[in-house]
């Protein structure tokens, strides 16, 4: 696994080459506001290292997916949405809407969510 991909938008955000509204910075993670929010709270949580999708990240057995979920929870706390609840979404593959192939969790909250999604 390469630690970064020079063509990856999220790797460029990690490197400071592309601006983002950062809400949390961990040693191995970064959380920032989505530029096209689908809810009042819509934060993306990414690892600083490049993994193309959630399965690849989980198979590394480094605990990075655990850290991403914990950071998403802390971002939810900061936005005051833990009591009402929030949704975490990992899209894996173009067919389900993954457009940036750097694993990321969508933290969504601040409004009611329908089920099933999509």
From TrEMBL:
Q: Which organism is it from?
A: Haloactinospora alba
- What InterPro entries does the entry give? Histidine_triad_HIT, HIT-like, HIT-like_sf
Q: Where is the active site?
A: 104 (tele-amp-histidine intermediate)
Task: List the lineage, top down.
Answer: Bacteria, Bacillati, Actinomycetota, Actinomycetes, Streptosporangiales
Q: Where are the transmembrane segments?
A: none
Annotated motif Histidine triad motif, positions: 102-106
Protein name per UniProt: Histidine triad (HIT) family protein
SUPFAM superfamilies associated with the record: HIT-like
Name a Pfam family for this protein: HIT
**Which one of the record's GO molecular function terms can you name?**
catalytic activity
């Amino acid at each position: 696994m390469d630690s970064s991909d020079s063509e990856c938008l999220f790797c460029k955000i990690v490197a400071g080459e592309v601006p983002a509204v950062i809400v949390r910075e961990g040693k191995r993670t970064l959380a920032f506001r989505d530029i096209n929010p689908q809810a009042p709270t819509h934060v993306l949580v990414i690892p600083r290292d490049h993994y193309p999708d959630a399965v690849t990240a989980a198979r590394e057995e480094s605990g990075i997916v655990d850290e991403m979920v914990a950071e998403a929870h802390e971002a939810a706390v900061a936005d005051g949405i833990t009591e009402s609840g929030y949704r975490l979404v990992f899209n894996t593959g173009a067919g389900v809407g993954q457009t940036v192939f750097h694993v990321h969790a969508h933290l969504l909250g601040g409004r009611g969510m329908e089920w099933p999604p999509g």
